[in-house]
């Protein structure tokens, strides 16, 4: 009878430890509270179908979608240390996932999450961000039809790693 009580105590303690550990791990991942409903990372060996918007001719694969009390929240995980503020391109990528969720769920998510190695940013999905995304998509589509498109940055690092560097007449030294 004593061994049964001891086993119950050990199992109960292990259960409490696992619960606390799972909360710590979830906090570290940057995922909000809720049920993970979509995963597109190699970590879980599960690759979901991409989200697609007929209305906006847009497709994408967020790293995670989490069913949260405020709706479905897209989470994009970035490698590397967080900048002081999220990069504009990362914010627009996350906004695209928010737009895809909005069309799929018939309800816009209140925010999305950009998770870097050391920090997570909650990015509000506002009408202004949505409008900026739609303007950017229009500009991209316009540029795809154009014969020549000017370089849109002043970052020599991007130029050095660009696949078109050898043919570009606007490359930075």
Structure description:
The chain has four helices and eight strands; from the N terminus they run αββββββαββαα. It has 173 residues and is α+β, with helices and mostly antiparallel strands. The chain has a domain at 31-147: Lambda Exonuclease, Chain A (Alpha-Beta Complex). β3 (51-53) and β4 (58-60) form a beta hairpin. The longest helix is centred in the N-terminal third of the chain and has 28 residues, at 2-29. It is elongated and about 85 Å long. The mean pLDDT is 82.
Amount of beta strand = 15-25%
In the CATH classification, which architecture of one domain applies? Alpha-Beta Complex
Please name the CATH topology of one domain.
Answer: Lambda Exonuclease, Chain A
Rg is 21 Å
Fraction of residues in helices?
A: 40-55%
* Separation of the first and last Cα atoms: 79 Å
Characterize the overall form.
elongated
| Total number of helices | 4
Biggest pleated sheet: 6 strands, mixed
| Count of distinct strands | 8
Low-confidence stretches: none
CATH class of one domain: Alpha Beta
SSE succession: HEEEEEEHEEHH
Strand order, largest beta sheet? 2-1-5-6-7-8
Q: pLDDT average, as an integer?
A: 82
**In terms of structural class, how would the helical and strand content be classed?**
alpha+beta
